[in-house]
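Troubleshooting entry. The earlier prediction with DP6 gave an output that would not parse, so I re-checked the input for stray whitespace and re-submitted. Clean input:
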Amino acid sequence: MTDAQFIPENYSKNLDSGAFTWSSPSNIALVKYWGKRDPQMPENPSISFTLNDCKTTTTLRFLKKIEEDEFSVRVFLDGSEVPDFKPKILTFFKRIEAYLPFLKDYHFRIETSNTFPHSSGIASSASGMSALALCLMSIEKALSPNISEELFIKKASFLARLGSGSACRSIEGDLVVWGKHEAIQGSSDLYGIKYPYEVHENFKNYHDTILLVDKGEKQVSSTVGHNLMHGHPFAAQRFQQAKDHISRLKGIFKSGDLNGFITLVEQEALTLHAMMMTSSPYFILMKPNTLKIINAIWAFREKTKVHVCFTLDAGANVHVLYPENDAEQVGEFIKNELVAYCQNGHYISDKIGFGAKLL
Ligand code: DP6
């Protein structure tokens, strides 16, 4: 599929006003997306677990307007207007206008809320942009009822990607691949797809406990970080490594090799941060407590042989990943040893989920 196929034919219906509500989850990458080129195309394929409880609920209200020359949008977070969010939405609308020709026909009101606190340091762009993309697709479906379920999902992911790359992995669950990879049939740089191969029981119901080490605003945004991969001395090797990791994960998912999974996922997390530390300019997003948690996980794993590992986003928070079978033991370990490293003792218990829902 090329992006031209996401440009719709003439709509068959008229619509004066209405509202749609979607809830869409966050996701955690196992193989990381870090490095992109215009327009929001990934330099390497990535794969993520879709989360269940960390999500954004968005209601999009729309009302036909008379003049069709400009975008008209207001954004509300938890009931209060947030003019600061508007520029990002307008950039998003500009990027997707060619694929949704109705965008200038309506006044839009976006009402959004997250299940996780806005100031938790958890990025809301993946859940937020995917929820908005799905609301927009619901409008398109109302204008063009013949659109297939398959195209609806693909185009929602395609649009979400243009808002925030990782958002395209939040439409479905429980494992999603984004980015062209020869060994993954149907994979594309344009949108995420459900991981299409066998996954061992060991990886069902995987848990992700997010330890909130630092709830402050990130010093370097993901977008800036991605751009620092242009001309990065290790870029080519890094992009190749991510591809190799996806090939390796295929075998790991099939066989249920938890030790292989742990090694690969931790290597990905540390490579992501190694790229940041070796960019020009360089930066560090981990905090002292991030390292303390990593060391505590390693010591606990060594001592108990429990299959617990960590991954990191572009920030200081730590995602603790573990299988359902080990949930009790790891839960105790987190409470007894790791919570002390969290800001105000805050953490979020989540697990693998199955994607967005129309409410
Ligand atoms: C480290 O999707 O937030 O979480 O496309 O610029 O919005 P933009 O970036 P974003 O980058 C996410 C980076 C990451 C890794 C990942 O989720 O794959």
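This one parsed fine. Helices lie at 86-96, 125-143, 149-163, 222-227, 235-255, 258-277, 288-304, 327-338.
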